[in-house]
Design goal:
- The chain has 165 residues and is α+β, with helices and mostly antiparallel strands.
- The protein contains three helices and nine strands.
- It is globular, with a radius of gyration of 19 Å.
- The chain starts with a helix and ends in a 10-residue tail after the last helix.
- Keywords: Signal.
- This is Lipocalin family protein.
- It comes from Sedimentimonas flavescens.
Length: 165
């Protein structure tokens, strides 16, 4: 009987379902978006400093605030497995810095997890972990700001090994 128990445990382990896909972040970790957020200051051109998508380093994204309080998106979408054309609108859904895109970003909710007080660098992500990225106004970003952005990603459960420059 004692020999049978380890064999049964091994059999049960082999039958267990694989763990759910976590994307780029541990979904068990808490995640939050920026509460103090100025949509007008966030508007404009951003450059992707880190996303985990090969070929996206330096890609430009334009976030133009329209008269209805949504962003018109253009540039390069770095939320998938390869760079893609970014189009559509992202409606501000709140609270804080949360958006619902009608096209780009895989139509996943986009959250600004953090933006520095001068709106020079920001961290974007999604609760399910489909993507996470650091965007900056100027390339290369200041080293201290980049380090702070990486800390925010890690704090929100992102695997920094998968979100490189």
């Amino acid at each position: 009987m004692r020999r049978l128990i380890p064999a049964l445990l091994c059999l049960l382990a082999a039958c267990a379902a694989p763990p759910p896909e976590q994307g780029l972040r541990n979904r068990e970790a808490m995640i939050s978006s920026a509460v103090v957020f100025d949509p007008a200051r966030f508007a404009g051109r951003w450059h992707v400093a880190a996303s985990g998508v090969p070929g996206c380093a330096g890609a430009a994204q334009d976030w133009a605030l329209d008269e209805r309080g949504a962003y018109v998106l253009s540039g390069i979408d770095c939320s998938g497995t390869r760079p893609a054309h970014l189009t559509g609108r992202a409606v501000i859904t709140g609270p804080g810095a949360r958006f619902a895109p009608d096209a780009g970003f895989g139509r996943a909710p986009v959250w600004v997890l953090w933006v520095d007080q001068d709106y020079r660098i920001a961290v974007l992500g999604t609760p399910e972990g489909q993507f996470g990225m650091i965007v900056t106004r100027e390339l290369p970003p200041r080293a201290d700001l980049m380090a702070a952005a990486q800390e925010v990603l890690a704090f929100n459960g992102y695997d920094l090994r998968r979100i490189g420059r």
